[in-house]
Amino acid sequence: MAESRRAVVIGGGIGGLTAAAALHRRGLQVTVLERARSLEPVGAAISLAPNSLRALDVIGLGDEIRDMAAWAGDGGLRTPSGRWLARSSADAAAERFGGPLVLHRATLIARLASRLPPDAVRTAAAATLADPGGPDRPARVTTPDGELEADLVVGADGIHSAVRRALFPGHPGPVYSGFTTWRVVIPVPGAEFASHETWGRGRIWGTHPLKDGRVYAYAAAVTPAGGRAPDDEKAELLRRFGDWHHPIPAVLAAARPEDVLRHDVHHIAEPPPAYHRGRVALVGDAAHAMPPTLGQGGNQAIEDAIVLAHHCEELPAYSAARLPRTTAIARQAVRVARINLMTSRAAIAVRDTAMAALSKAGPALFLRGFDGIADWRPPQQPYASEQTPAGNR
Asked: Among 181, 211, 361, 367, which residue is least crowded by beta carbons within 10 Å?
């Protein structure tokens, strides 16, 4: 591929930077336009499933991330009182799919950016798609510093994507998922625990240790959109989760109000007709924002990026490869949200009994819900300068 081919990536999050790194590896001249003043991500930690780790192998980053992250070990699903409903097996997951892991988003962002030339990323650079281009003309992107022409533009500008609106102005956009989330990454002195997720009545909590000694915790609750605590979000978490099992009280005691991030959850209920138009392709939340209940949002963005680089000269093939898969996963995430955020006491009793029975049937049966997701493999990578070792695929 000619060195003169140019790609412009709008958005410097996980999907955008992975796309930039993969396209750079293919030989394109890449420019990333990020409207924020730095690449420091808004968010906390991310769970990387085996499918996205295999995708990162394609750009030579998989093993580096494996070494830096905490493996998601044995843990499981609990009730607010602490009773185990289901136990997970790290060995069983690793044997079936490969092991999942957890790391801070900032770590992943930094490592992805390190795969790019020093001048490839422009921060504080708002961008607008002026023309999606076509077979006989390049795409055009306007910035405060002037206009850029590109053979390929990647719309990685998130759930409220302006690029998506420009490509498909009739698309209805995201809808409220019915719940809000809180996230925190902090040190918790003396807290020893197994990774777990806890399901209550219209509420969930998850706690996971990170490799650097900090703790990643997240919570969700069914609540009207746009709500905020009357005092601060730590106090709100104490009201909702303060009497739940260890280590939840210890995490809340260690958190400061300013440590807690709160965001309403939206998702794209109706997928766009395609993930491309002209010379522009959508990746990540811009294409298929989904609830976090499967932990696949960032993972699917990474998959998108690698597949896009593989099909960068044939964007219809990219849409054909990605739209059915991500639509199915997004719909599954919506279904899972309805299950783990139930509010009916009778339905919760049935759910908890079913989860306990499923766990007793064995880890293989419990893990079947991730068949077709975690076992994904990236497309052939003829452009890679070094092949991924067989043991890492």
From this structure: 361
Q: What is the pLDDT of residue 388?
A: 39
Higher pLDDT, 190 or 113: 113
What domain count does the chain have? Answer: 1
| Structural domain contains residue 282 | yes
Within-domain flag for 57: yes
Total-model pTM: 0.92
Whether residue 327 contacts residue 274, with contact meaning beta carbons closer than 8 Å, is answered with no
Q: Could you tell me if residue 388 is inside a domain?
A: no
For the stretch 260-285, what's the b/e string if a residue is b when 16 or more beta carbons lie within 10 angstroms of its beta carbon?
bebeebbbbbebbebbbbbbbbbbbb
CATH code assigned at 65? 3.50.50.60
